[in-house]
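Hey team,

Sharing the SKA complex subunit 1 run so nobody has to redo it. Sequence (254 residues) first:
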Amino acid sequence: MSHCELEDITLHLNDRISSTRRVLELRTIAKDQDKRVILGKIGQDILAIDGLLDQFEKCVGRQKDLLKHLKELEGFFEEDVKDGKNLRDNMPTHMPRKGQPAVHGIGPAGQSGPVNVQPVQQVHTRKTSKNQIREMEFITSPEFDTIPQYMKGRLTYEQLNTAVESINTAVTGKYKILNQSAKTLNNATRKLHQRFKEEENKDTKGLFFIVEADIKEFTQMKVDKRFQSILSMLRHCQRLREQRGGGITRYVLL
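Structure output:
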């Protein structure tokens, strides 16, 4: 029911109430034989008013439901805008920038032309003074297409790789500290170093892993339901696996 129809019901309801009021006023001066007719008329008007009130109540209920739905949509749009701004301000390093020339080469069947450049499939490492720190490979477009829609939800390819970059930031931050001698660290960093050591066990030897606390420590990524969905997609793409033990969930890079 539209806004105009709602106004029409309101006007009609007011007319009925005014008409009933006038009939009640006339009843006091009517003759006895006319009062029976007047009472019948009043009864009909009251039934009509009751019906209009039912319509009015249903219409108001529908409008409330619509308003609630619009509020939910507003929340979704605000979240999308926030994600878009975050993506704009934190553009992944592997993404091409506006104005960059397209890379040309030999395509399938020897055809020359623009070639879609995907992230290089190799183990990313950053060298430190002692060891190399492994990083997670970025998700390629074909891999992203294999992820089930129920798992992706509204998450985009760019947003997933932004999460990969955040995980790499956490891994690098953690192992840069671990690769230093505890004696050279300040109090705050020494506590982190101690926590990192306590989270290791015989099954993590030689592996690179992080926990949720590392995400919070080294990145601005929220550890929420969306984060859990991202982890599911990364497991699907064989970028990490979970290792549980001692009340800790470790996310191990593959």
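The chain is about 55% helix and 10% strand.

Ping me if you want the raw files.
A.
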